[in-house]
């Protein structure tokens, strides 16, 4: 005895499945391949990306957007060159080690987030401080 199959019901389910499954797989693939971008830490407390390299006897530290220039200064030794990538850095900084060089690579802006007029302070220990390429 043969059973009859309701082809209308079967074809609706099959059509829905044949469209839904490829869309789901495509969505998973697209979302899985997206790069997650880090957001800057508004407090400026996030550690700098410390990529130290030796150029002669001077250390070099690179600071990327979303990281803290002050963290790089804290990690620096006397004579370190700190290269800052293009971006807006909302923090105040204090230099208290000798012969530190801050160099902006591109359009670098340091904005003081506080109410004080001075966003960059050079303490007595910061003799020989150099700042270039920063607004």
Structure description:
- The chain is built from 2 helices and 7 strands, in the order αββαβββββ.
- With 135 residues, the protein is an alpha/beta fold.
- It has a domain of 82 residues.
- It has a 5-stranded mixed beta sheet. It has a two-stranded parallel ribbon with strand order 4-6.
- Strand 1 and strand 2 form a beta hairpin.
- About 13% of the residues have low confidence.
Oligomer classification: single chain
Q: Can you tell me the residue ranges where pLDDT is under 50 for at least 5 consecutive residues?
A: 33-49
Total beta-strand segments: 7
Order of helices and strands: HEEHEEEEE
Arrangement of strands in the largest sheet: 1-2-3-5-7
Alpha-beta classification: alpha/beta
Distance between the termini: 87 Å
Radius of gyration, in angstroms, nearest whole number: 27 Å
Secondary structure elements and pairings:
Elements: H1 7-32, E1 53-55, E2 58-63, H2 69-75, E3 81-90, E4 93-95, E5 101-111, E6 120-122, E7 130-134
Parallel strand pairs: 2-3, 3-5, 4-6, 5-7
Antiparallel strand pairs: 1-2
